[in-house]
## 1
Amino acid sequence: MKDQKPETIDEFIKTSPEASQEIMYALKALIEAAEPRAEGGISWNVPVYKYHGILAGFSLAKKHVSFGIDSLTAEVRRILEGKGYKTGKKTIQIRFDQKVPAAAIRQLIKEQARLNEI
């Protein structure tokens, strides 16, 4: 990325390596479609969406995009790991050569929005 810090999610994506952009645009579209009331912006130098608190976000690594969300359960992690994704307690790593697990991410966003409303 360039030395100048991006001020919007689109700037973040546009200044990221080309190999990562398709994944990040897909994540952006998924988040915005699953929770249209979410407000996107840059926090901690990465794209973050907020809806009654932190909803979800993503960041760039050398060979993957990391999607972060608090509602990621052990069950969903096991399913995703079975499909070849690496996961952490609250993250899903999507390698540049992998497709975005759209159904799982959509479900996680809706669950996190519901939890944030409580």
## 2
Amino acid sequence: MFQFVTPITGVRKVLGPFLFLSLINITQCWGQAPSVGNLIKVHEATQTEINSLSNEEEGMLIYNEDTKQLNFFEGSNWVAPSNTSKTLVLNRANNGNNDLIANRNNQYFNFPINASHELSNTGGIFQTVGNGRIRVTQTGTYLMSAAFSVRDMPSGDTKYIIGLFVNGALRGYLSRGFASLPNRDWWGTSGTMVYPLNANDEVLFRYVVNNNNRPLDAVFINIGITQL
């Protein structure tokens, strides 16, 4: 039995039965498997509905139906607290006669790689929506990389570019230059870029190879995106 004396009145009070029963109730509550009726359910919303919210307060919670994650408002953005890496990896490999690298001098073409070539897609924030086209559903800073190689690059000086487009506008070159080869040979290029993206932005990876309208055989094509 627990007792205490009030500092002002000096009256001795007994807490034994009340405290003992309270501890028993708490122990029973945490010691038993929860039932559905004891669980708390937060509001559900799509990413579009979440983006349209106004007057949010820091610490608010909502369940994102699109990403299947619990989001909280950290003061300026809705974010998902997760230890899961948020990374997308696309890879297409082919050593045959494929003519995958189409070209026309100084003209951009989309990377010929899509959702069927996903090797990894974690974090629930990436949507591969077309050849070389990826949509992100969460605002953040992203590290983006792309690469391709061919087995029949022509001799001489051949101009090449890997460009990154955001919502249709060119935002930077991941790689750019001239391949200078004495003979037709295997060749490849790659590059990276860090860029901030908003929720529902679409990034597009495109290339230029000046080979006088003659397609080339791709050995591999790769795209990688990681939220930092």
## 3
Amino acid sequence: MITLVTKGIKVTVQTSFEGTFFKNYKMHYAFGYTITIENQTKEPVQLISRHWDVLDSLKEMESIDGEGVIGKKPVIQPGRSHTYSSGTLLASPIGAMKGFYEMVNLSTTETFEAEVPTFKFAAPFALN
């Protein structure tokens, strides 16, 4: 588990290896991650978008941008948190992701970025 706090938003990430499978005649490695976003400020915030940099050890880094997370734009009240799970497919058994959430303070309408720490993926059989 890895944690980072930015501007009062605590982001904690837990990863898991979900298995391997063939797709389009190529081996793929499936990884899951669960992220908890905790609002440690005194103001309500809303997550409005996300940015990911995905590193696959066999490919160039890929950047992904999108609205919300898993189809939601959660409002997180002070002292509360939002947890969700998602996943990614890699061409190799080793990789990583990092990024940020674009947040808006609902009291002031100020937008800011809450960083997501770099989290690593490694299939158990890939490490000595």
## 4
Amino acid sequence: MKSRLAVLGVMSFLIAPTLPIPASAASFDCERTDLAADEKAICDTRVLNDADVKMATTFDILTSLLAMGTRDALRDEQSAWLKKRQACGGDVACLMAAYEERMKQLTQAFEGLSRPL
């Protein structure tokens, strides 16, 4: 389990610099004028911004590793999670809890990957 988390950390470190990152570093453009309340809170709160980048990077890595059917299920879960995040509005505590829950789910998905011995 620890070795899988270490691999995820290394992959995040290697891939993150190659991803296009807006000035604010969130996984979406914080410069948009039509930000929803949850997006504005994420852009304005460093810890949420960091959590968003970590979650988005982990999600991208997982989708690249999963088979098509499992990948589609993960994307459906992500869409459902985004609706839950949006329901938090600008409530920072609610948003942090949402990110913690999603990262736990993504970590479990990563741990569930089969790999050759």
